[in-house]
Specification:
The protein has helices spanning about 1-10, 25-45, 60-70, 85-95, 125-130, 140-145, 170-175, 175-190, 200-215, 225-235, 250-260, 260-265, 275-290, and strands at about 50-55, 105-115, 135, 160. By secondary structure, it is mainly alpha-helical. It folds into two domains: about 1-135, 3-Layer(aba) Sandwich (Rossmann fold), CATH 3.40.50.300; about 170-290, Lysin (Up-down Bundle), CATH 1.20.150.20. The strands form two sheets. The protein has a two-stranded parallel ribbon. Strands 3-4 form a two-stranded antiparallel sheet. The longest helix has 20 residues, at about 25-45.
Length: about 290
Amino acid sequence: MNSRGTNEKVNALEYSILVAAIASDPAPLQFLDPYSGCAMGEYFRDNGMHALIIYDDLSKQAVAYRQMSLLLRRPPGREAFPWDVFYLHSRLLERAAKQSDQTDAGSSTALPVIETQAGDVSAYIPTNVISITDGQICLETELFYRRIRPAINVGLSVSRVGSAAQLKAMKQVCGSSKLELAQYREVAAFAQFESDLDAATQALLNRGARLTEVPKQPQYEPLPIEKQIVVIYAAVNGLCDRMPLDRISQYEKAILSTINPELQKSFLEKGGLTNKRKMEPDASLKESTLPYL
């Protein structure tokens, strides 16, 4: 299994459990597999620890459940799934919980994965799971082939928790970026047929292309949140607007090395990006930008 080999390389198996039901296993095993993993996660939660349970993926469990139901001659419904397929996933995902301080303050977080067919998020199983969770991240094959990785569709990816789960500094720097990216994708679709663009449209396309380029990252190389704040701050304030796209990744590395690490850590504090904290990054970022224009 590829996931096991990857986890072994970074010693993640020391604090991970893999519960696997492969495609050749009987349908009842594929049906029960997520519940087994959930029970193991609950053990850690109930003992005051924190567990992340990744279900990859619940579409296969739903198909296995459909197969069992049809063999049992239960009445089929939409897409031949049985009538209680919603309960199949709701009773699993709603077991994720945060305990109170009086009961050891443990927690379990569910991260379900759903496979879509041709990017159709309105299919039966995707809509069921979307209605249960606190938000979704939608990935697109087309974006992946265009080398936008992670291949996240900004328009379809939403959070029902919103900015309540974000640090103040992150809210400050990326508040308008989602709207700008949505406008960029809308305008870019028409701009390819239009040769004469006005200055405002051209500026929107330039900014959008760079806001799309900045979040790209290599696989297995997560960026600490304080560094994310610095990079996004530079992009939303227009410092990358005149920069060639192929130099943005070099620029990101350069600016992260110029700003004091202690100052970066201060962005995580409650005050966020105060005017005083902005002074040093503003000067450093503008100076670091010049060699890359």
